[in-house]
Design goal:
The protein has 734 residues and is of the alpha+beta class. The strands form 10 sheets. Strands 11, 12, 16, 17, 18, 19, 22, 23, 24 and 25 form a 10-stranded mixed β-sheet that branches. The chain has a 6-stranded antiparallel β-sheet with strand order 5-4-7-2-10-13. The radius of gyration is 27 Å and the shape is globular. It binds beta-D-glucopyranose.
Length: 734
């Protein structure tokens, strides 16, 4: 298909400039009356375009992060108002971005896609006389070193504000494949909030630290006045250590540092081509009094529409819910990432798999996830393997394929299905069906018993609290987890196929065989071979328990009680733990876990002052010490998956997968006196849904709203009843 950018070339600067971020410029005259003008633009790296000194658009980190080997987005801007009669100039600055920064672990020194950035653009101007003109990037453009000397995703920016770009050289043609260019698919990445400092701290180590009161993703904007040539350093951190000192060890090798050399006088700086995850900043060699009004934290993420709200009578649960929202805001920056601060910030598939359901209620994520799923589909190996991370950044296997793990690769089935339930697009399901099928077939082809997933290398119940000493993996048998996911993915494939009108008999038979093999291999009388919370959770929740459901449910509760009414689950068990307890009729126990304040629990982190969801249940211990410096992000959304239970059980709102996008849905709240009241609202594609309840003496007052054009099955006092659109209040017994 013809692409307007085929007329242009990718251009770069002299490769010897190495890490310096270049700026490219073209001057041109306009003598006719402009009807309209459009800029088409992309980069291998990230770009910022200006026309006649004004920034083009408000989008940041463009063109965004995709599977660059196969897909590179370009953006289209209406720039009619930026052009004028006579002399004009367009400047395009470029940073290394995800393309040319070091990304991923094991540590790379330079970018894995490239080592320096390149840009491509076409400016098309139409005149009122019917003629038009295009200006395309080529080697007639000029190139200059910008004031940004280094800009790296993990390491931050080094800026010398004294530098005024000298356009003394021509740009060079950079040979790159233009056929990978695709029109923009993702949500705009923009500034969404500005936060003032909460306090300025002088730490015991004698450092000056600003606390913004909220762990966030974005950048610092500062104003500083000083002498030309003076250099200041600004570090970023999520926590203070137990002595109250600035702590960065959990960033691992990511420097996340601003090194800024002043020009003379007053000046303002904020990151150009990178972002940071932080709550605190440390100022070193600040040349003047540190005044709060000179500092602002800018929150940056993909601009998704907020759609979900939850509030209850317990302030700590409300803070937990806010932390979930902040976790999503912090990690939905074009790609769903594990964390926004350390030397990862990667599209870990497992993390998105466990959080997807919650994400889809909090925000309208369809566009965001569609782009990412297309990258996943483009990345899937011919054998059907879905790698650990999308976009892929690690070493490949010798045959060009990837390592993969159960519960991570299953994002290929779980995410499309969850998105279908929430937003109802059959087209997306149809587009993703081949990827879902290839993933299931890949598992089926793995060596070992045909209907189990044996002999793989998996992350297991990652970070489970029952991990043996020295391991990150919980003690649940990895093959049990893998085989349970084999079953889940097959079941989701069947559901998707049925929606699309396909004959799914073959997979229905396969699912039965997986179930039989699972029960034969992993059942051990009234127990499972792994006598762990996570094993019972996934066996019950995925529908594998058969006639042992009651026995396994009883055992799950016993294990929770034996551990002092606390959870031991990791990435695999946690997302479905409360749902499983609800399913076996023990929502009371689910509330007990939700409200548990002793470690490990959700509210433990809240009591410790968390403002986002932690990666590890005891990221910070009661005495303020850290559990580990290696795997200790304070902004990891995975355990935030608990919010789908708040919406789905506490407030009781769930979509109906047979009539998706909440065209028909369920309101089946299970109240608990310990919460006092609940108010939830979902601005679904079918309208605003509200479910509320409140204890009043020995009664419960339920109120709910069913939007026009929808119906709901409502269960308040033990029996389901159909309701049409309207606003209702119903009294029930406490
Ligand atoms: C990431 C996780 C990810 C995991 C895989 C970690 O380093 O931060 O969130 O899912 O690796 O086990």
């Amino acid at each position: 298909m013809e692409n307007i950018l085929d007329k242009a070339y990718f251009i770069c600067a002299d490769p010897a400039w190495d890490r310096i971020c270049p700026v490219f410029k073209k001057e041109f005259d306009i003598s006719k009356k402009i009807k309209n003008a459009t800029l088409y633009i992309s980069a291998l790296g990230v770009y910022e375009a200006k026309i006649n000194g004004s920034r083009v658009g408000k989008r940041l980190m463009t063109p965004g992060w995709t599977a660059y080997e196969k897909r590179l987005q370009y953006q289209t801007y209406d720039v009619t108002n930026l052009l004028s009669d006579g002399e004009n100039k367009i400047e395009i600055g470029a940073g290394h971005g995800w393309f040319a920064s070091r990304i991923g672990t094991p540590k790379t020194v330079t970018g894995i896609y490239g080592t320096y950035p390149a840009v491509i653009a076409v400016l098309k101007t139409e005149y009122t006389d019917g003629s038009d003109e295009t200006i395309c990037t080529d080697d007639t453009w000029k190139a200059a070193r910008s004031e940004v000397l280094v800009s790296q995703i993990y390491d931050g920016e080094t800026v010398d504000a004294r530098i005024i770009p000298q356009f003394s050289e021509n740009a060079r043609i950079f040979n790159a494949d233009r056929s990978i260019l695709i029109p923009d698919e993702g949500e705009d990445i923009i500034e969404t909030e500005r936060i003032a400092p909460r306090s300025i701290i002088h730490t015991p180590a004698g450092e000056t630290v600003i606390d913004f009161g909220q762990n966030l993703t974005g950048c610092l904007e500062f104003n500083v006045t000083g002498k030309a040539g003076h250099t200041v350093y600004v570090g970023h951190a999520e926590i203070l250590d137990k002595n109250g000192n600035f702590y960065t060890e959990n960033y691992r090798s990511a420097k996340a540092l601003i090194t800024y050399t002043l020009k003379e006088g007053s000046q303002t700086y904020k990151a150009r081509y990178t972002f940071y995850g932080f709550r605190y900043v440390r100022l070193t060699d600040w040349p003047e009094e540190v005044k709060p009004e000179n500092f602002t934290a800018i929150v940056i993420h993909s601009d998704m529409k907020r759609t979900g709200w939850f509030k209850c009578g317990n302030g700590k649960v409300n803070r937990l819910f806010e932390n979930v929202i902040w976790g999503q805001r912090g990690n939905f920056l074009d790609v769903p990432t594990d964390c926004p601060q350390r030397d990862e910030r990667l599209g870990w598939t497992g993390d998105a798999e466990v959080f997807c359901r919650t994400a889809n209620i909090n925000f309208d994520t369809e566009k965001f996830f569609t782009k990412w799923l297309r990258d996943m589909k483009a990345t899937q190996s011919p054998q059907g393997i879905i790698p650990y991370v999308v976009p892929f950044v690690f070493d490949r296997r010798p045959d060009g394929s990837y390592e993969c793990s159960a519960a991570w690769g299953d994002a290929a089935t779980v995410c499309p299905w969850e998105i279908y339930k929430a937003f109802g697009s059959k087209d997306l399901l149809c587009e993703m069906y081949p990827m879902m099928e290839k993933w299931v077939e890949y598992i089926h082809s793995c060596p070992g018993e045909e209907y189990l997933w044996q002999n793989g290398r998996h992350f297991g119940d990652w970070l489970g609290m029952d991990a043996p000493a020295g391991s990150y993996k919980g003690s649940t048998d990895e093959e049990l987890i893998a085989s349970a996911y084999f079953y889940l993915s097959t079941c989701l494939l069947i559901k998707a196929g049925k929606v699309l009108g396909y004959d799914m008999v073959h997979y229905e038979e396969m699912a039965e065989k997986i179930k039989a093999a699972y029960q034969k291999t992993y059942f051990n009388g009234e127990r499972l071979i792994s006598d762990t919370q996570t094993a019972y959770v996934i066996t019950i929740y995925f529908g594998l328990a058969g006639d042992k459901k009651a026995a396994f449910g009883k055992r799950l509760v016993e294990l929770i009680e034996a551990f002092g009414d606390r959870l031991q689950t990791g990435f695999v068990g946690t997302p479905y733990l409360l749902d499983t307890l609800t399913e076996i009729g023990r929502a009371d126990k689910a509330y007990t876990l939700l409200l548990q304040e002793k470690f490990p629990s959700w509210l433990f982190s809240v009591n410790m002052g968390a403002t986002t969801i932690w990666e590890h249940w005891d990221g910070l211990r009661e005495d303020g010490s850290v559990w580990s410096k290696d795997m200790n992000s304070f902004n990891h959304y995975a355990y935030g998956s608990v919010a789908s239970w708040l919406y789905g059980t506490a407030a009781g709102i769930t979509p109906d997968e047979d009539v998706p996008a909440y065209k028909h849905f369920f309101i089946r709240p299970i109240p608990d006196k310990r919460l006092g009241f609940v108010k939830a609202r979902i601005d679904s594609r079918s309208g605003t849904i509200v479910s509320e309840w409140e204890y009043e003496n020995d009664k419960i007052r339920y109120s709910f709203i069913i939007p026009a054009g929808t119906t709901a099955t409502v269960c308040l006092n033990g029996t389901d009843k159909e309701y049409g659109a309207g606003k209702y209040t119903v009294w029930g017994d406490a």
